[in-house]
Design goal:
With 332 residues, the protein is of the alpha+beta class. It is built from 4 helices and 22 strands. Strands 9, 10, 11, 12, 13, 14, 15, 16, 17 and 20 form a 10-stranded antiparallel β-sheet that branches. It has an 8-stranded mixed beta barrel with strand order 1-2-3-4-5-6-7-8. Strands 18-19 form a two-stranded antiparallel ribbon.
């Protein structure tokens, strides 16, 4: 993402990709609805003051390199609509911001964001912060595509014992995105064995669905994060990125919106993988808490039996402050 500064001179600002002027000049400028860079036509300039102006901007998608949006009254909706129109085209979108708070809105609109922010000096710091975040996210995504760090192998675990788990503090993880059927979090009471706990996406006759929620387990359990680290459920907080997995091996990251911790009765579930490596987890004793069984369906923890096979993840490494290390350890 670029930052265009609406100023006569650069004054040594690092991170600024170009100067903008409403009059012909040596860098970026607009004239008669056209956008130029170094006196070369690169696109169109549309001043958004009506629905007709928005329609004109959208009509340029795919036919120009850049569309610059400026505003009579700044609004997110035209930015989103033009981004949507240009998403499958090579056309890039630049948008004017008038207040620092608008930088994040334009920079992450539709979870895509504009390709350039046009700002004055008083908004420059916010624009550069958004540019930095976008660069970090792009680098992280490229890294994940290259080495597939975000994926985790799932296998079947056999339930060896089911016991009453007494009462304790249970953690619900509420996400900023909706969960689909088959999706859940990897949770376990040891760093070497996790089970796939399904989201609350399945209807019950007693309570409504919470398709953004995972009733994850006890506060002492590990949760698998999007970057491959682990955190205790008690350590999770809003803004953290957790790994959301499916039994078919696909995964994605999701951001936590809030945590909900309450005292509830538990079931203690013990299981082992195909190599007889053992694990366990404390899960709330409730029909709405489900694990993914061998046929790929979500099964309530209250309906599970010894000998049932559930999906999970095994690891041979131990953890130090959430980081996988090769040192030996024993967890029970």
């Amino acid at each position: 993402m670029e930052v265009w500064l609406n100023a006569p001179v650069l004054k040594g600002h690092e991170g600024v990709d170009g100067l903008y002027s409403g009059q012909p000049g040596p860098d970026i400028y607009s004239e008669d609805g056209l956008l130029y860079r170094n006196h070369i036509l690169i696109g169109g300039h549309v001043h958004i003051d009506s629905a007709e102006a928005q329609a004109k901007a959208r009509s340029l998608a795919g036919s120009v390199e850049w569309i610059l949006l400026t505003f009579e009254d700044w609004s997110m909706i035209p930015i989103e609509n033009v981004i949507a129109a240009t998403e499958s085209t090579p056309t890039k979108v630049a948008a004017q911001i008038m207040k620092p708070v608008e930088a994040q809105g334009a920079g992450f609109a539709l979870n895509i964001g504009v390709d350039a922010l046009l700002c004055t000096e008083d908004c420059l710091e916010s624009a550069l912060v958004v540019k930095s975040i976008r660069l970090e996210e792009s680098t992280s995504e490229d890294s994940c595509l290259g080495n597939n760090e975000q994926n985790v192998d799932l296998s079947l675990m056999t339930i060896t014992d089911i016991q009453e788990g007494h009462s304790g503090d249970r953690v619900c993880v509420d996400l900023l995105s909706m969960l689909g059927e088959g999706e859940g979090m990897l949770v376990g009471s040891t760093a070497k064995a996790f089970v796939l706990i399904h989201g609350e996406t399945i209807a019950s006759k007693y309570v409504p669905t919470r398709p953004f929620r995972i009733n994850a387990g006890s506060v002492d359990a590990y949760s698998y994060m999007a970057d491959g680290r682990t955190k205790y459920l008690s350590e999770l907080t809003s803004g953290d990125e957790v790994l959301i997995a499916r039994n078919d091996g696909t995964s994605r990251k999701a951001i936590i919106g809030r945590m909900k911790i309450e005292t509830r009765p538990f079931i203690l579930l013990r299981f082992e993988d195909e190599n007889t490596n053992e694990g366990h987890v404390f899960i709330q004793q409730a029909e709405t808490v489900r694990l993914v069984i061998q046929n790929g369906e979500a099964c309530s923890v209250t309906d599970l039996s010894v000998g049932d096979c559930i999906f999970g993840h095994s690891s041979t490494s131990t953890r130090h402050v959430g980081q996988s290390i090769s040192a030996s350890s024993e967890e029970r």
